[in-house]
Every structure is written in C-alpha cells, then in structure tokens.
Design brief:
- The chain is mostly helical.
- Helices cover about 80% and strands about 0% of the residues.
Length: about 400
C-alpha cells in the first residue's frame, strides 16, 4: 500500500467526518427548533426540500468541476459553502414573519445542500483515486469511509439537540461554522490541490451518458434513499414524539440508529464475499440484501396496520432490522459505483450517481411530509415498501461485468 495514498485517504476521511458531524447537527437543529415553534409535518419537510433538490445539481456540477479543477479544490469549495450556509441561518430573526422565516431557512438550507453534495462527491472521488494506488483496498476503504461518516452523522444528531438546549439556535450555528473553518485550514495545507484533475466532459450528453451499470445503479439509488427518507425525515420522529417520547429520546433514537447503521456499513466487507473481478459476488449481494430490506418493510407495514400493542417499540425494533439491511445495501452500492466508474472521470461518474442519491432524498423528503399528513406512519411505510420492491427489481438488471477492463 502506498503511504502517500493512505495519508490522503486519512486526510479526506477526517475532513468529511468533521463536515458530516456539523451536517447531522444542522438537521436536528432545524427539525427540533421549528417543530417547537409549531410547524406542521409538511411544513417541516418543506424546510428540507431545497436542501435535497440543490444536491441533484450540485452533484452533477461538482463531479464535472472536480474532474476539471481537482478534487481537493472542490472539497475546499464545499467546506466554504457550508460555512456560508451556517452564517446565513444564524442571521434568522424571531421578529420576521413566518413566511419570511420559512423562505430564508429554505434558501439557506439550499446553500447547505449544495455544500453537502459538493463535499461528498469530492470525498468519494478522492477514495477512488487513492484506492487505485492501494491494490485490493477499494471495497474496504469505501465501506469504512461510508460507515464511519454515517456514524459521525449520528453523533451529529445528538450534538444538534445538545447544542440547541445549551447555546440556542444561533450560537450552535456559530460554533459549527468555526469548527468547519479549522477543518478548511487543514485541508488547504494538507492535500495536493490538483488531485484527481483530468479531462472533463465537453457536453451535457457526455456527462449524462454513463455506462449501463452506473445508470441502473443510479436508478436503484433513487428509490433506495427515497425509501429511507420517506419515514426518516418526518414520519418516525413525529410518530415517536406523538407517542409520548421527549425530544431527547427522539434525537437519541435517530442518533443511535444512524451510528449503528454506520458501524454496519463499515462491517459490510466482512458480510459480502469478495470476488476477483469485483462484481460477480458483489452484484448478487446487492440483489439479495435489497430483497431482504423490502421484505422487512412489508412486515413492518403489516404490524403497524394491525396496530399491535406497544407499537412504538415494535416500530423501533423493526427499524433496527431495517437499518441493518439498509446499511449493507448502501455500502455495497457505494462500492459498486466506484467499481463501475472509470478512473479518468471518476468524479463525474460519482457525481452523476450521487445526483440520483439526492433526487431520492428529495422525493423521500417530500413524501415524508405528505404521506404522514395523509395517513400517518402506515402510509409512510407503505411508500417505503413500494420503493424498495422497485429497488430490488432494478438490481436484478445490474451487469456482472464492467465495460472497461479496469480492476478494483
């Protein structure tokens, strides 16, 4: 293994840990602060819509820009953009009207959404570049990177609730902006600025015309993450609070779920047998775990429909099983996108894939508020089950060979 590659991998992972910590805290800050102010489930979901929608464009452009100007530079741009988003949110005044407050938060959340996906695309692309210098490490490095950053997001959920209680909405945002400024300085002085620079696509047609494996995996990613966020963003938090849980308990569950989900993602290479070609075992694993996840969600729908006793604890247990299967699915997908991606334009391929990821989150976020308002948690879970069945059907068509002769 190249010491230089391992060093760059460690720097990128550490920077993204810090970013994800503040991003998770931001979600809890906004959700709990505005729920406390009396916003409806749909209004809460609406606050996150531009955040998710901005990610679709940010991922596509971020991948293209990272290929043209270098991954390190785009990582820096993502960090700066997040700092700007935090400062905009901190300017929110309690004297403003409700409409003006919502518009301001949606706009600032859009800035943060751009920041998140610029940073994610740059970071994941850096893993492709550095793992290419460390033979056989791609699956392990991707799994550890993805799992650890999601565990960090869970810590961020808890941190957001804690900061909101201790220093308030505005003070929390200032603290997080300061943390990101320190991380930015570290990235500027640690990573080669031109890392990952290559010849970028010259047309939109070339940017969107990916190989069959990437196109199908992107479609599966849309419904996979839509299936999670349709209950995660609004449905379960509001359901648990309405069942008598406190904000601390709700935030604690979401944090524990996300941390556990991250640890399972990091364990995925030990749960999925590797193949020499990098696809012949991994693609069937994606199909297998997608089927398990869909089955778990259908069973959970039935239990909620029957209104079994101690329903909130049944839901918590069921979502724990959901989280395990979802984590393995997500980790295998995160590996497969880099396995299918070409080395020359890895950042563009990753950006296209995570644009699909962002589109799924956008759809899930929108449906989370609408379905919960229409039919409670049951409708949200039914929506999740239908999307997961679609995900499984799409994975059945994933190719077992990459178009080029690259190895992982």
């Amino acid at each position: 293994m190249s010491t230089h590659a391992a060093r760059n991998y460690a720097i990128v992972t550490s920077a993204y840990w810090g970013f994800t910590l503040t991003d998770g805290a931001l979600r809890m800050l906004v959700l709990l602060h505005f729920y406390r102010l009396g916003y409806s489930p749909f209004a809460l979901a609406f606050l996150f819509l531009l955040y998710e929608a901005a990610g679709v464009v940010a991922n596509l452009l971020g991948g293209w820009l990272a290929t043209r100007f270098g991954i390190s530079r785009m990582l820096m741009v993502g960090l700066v953009t997040q700092i700007v988003g935090f400062l905009l949110l901190s300017a929110l005044s309690p004297e403003w009207t409700a409409a003006m407050s919502v518009a301001w938060v949606v706009m600032a959340q859009g800035v943060c959404g751009v920041a998140k996906d610029l940073t994610k695309t740059a970071s994941k692309s850096a893993i492709k570049i550095t793992a290419g210098q460390a033979s056989g490490q791609l699956f392990k490095w991707v799994a550890w990177f993805t799992g650890s950053k999601n565990a960090m997001k869970g810590v961020g959920f808890f941190l957001g609730g804690l900061l909101l209680d201790q220093v308030g909405f505005q003070g929390s945002l200032w603290i997080m902006a300061g943390l990101l400024a320190l991380i930015l300085v570290g990235v500027v002085f640690s990573l080669p600025p031109m890392m990952g620079k290559s010849k970028a696509s010259k047309s939109a047609k070339e940017l969107f015309a990916k190989n069959r494996g990437i196109n199908l995996l992107a479609a599966a990613r849309v419904v996979l993450f839509g299936a999670r966020d349709v209950w995660f963003v609004v449905g379960v938090p509001v359901f648990l609070y309405a069942s008598g849980w406190t904000f601390t308990m709700v935030g604690g569950f979401l944090a524990a779920w996300t941390i556990g989900y991250g640890f399972v993602q990091a364990m995925a290479p030990s749960l999925v047998r590797r193949s020499e070609d990098g696809l012949s075992n991994e693609v069937p694993a994606a199909r297998h775990w997608s089927a398990i996840l869909a089955f778990v969600t259908v069973v959970l729908c039935g239990l909620v429909w029957l209104d079994v006793s101690h329903l909130e604890w049944v839901v918590v247990a069921g979502l724990g099983v959901f989280g395990f299967a979802f984590a393995v699915n997500s980790s295998v997908h995160s590996y497969l996108i880099l396995a299918y991606a070409g080395s020359e334009k890895a950042a563009e391929d990753v950006g296209f894939y995570y644009a699909a990821n962002a589109l799924g989150r956008f759809i899930g976020t929108l449906l989370s508020g609408l379905l919960y308002q229409w039919g409670g948690l049951l409708y949200a879970l039914i929506g999740s089950a239908l999307m997961l069945i679609t995900c499984w059907l799409v994975t059945l068509a994933l190719p077992l060979q990459r178009p080029s002769g690259e190895t992982t």
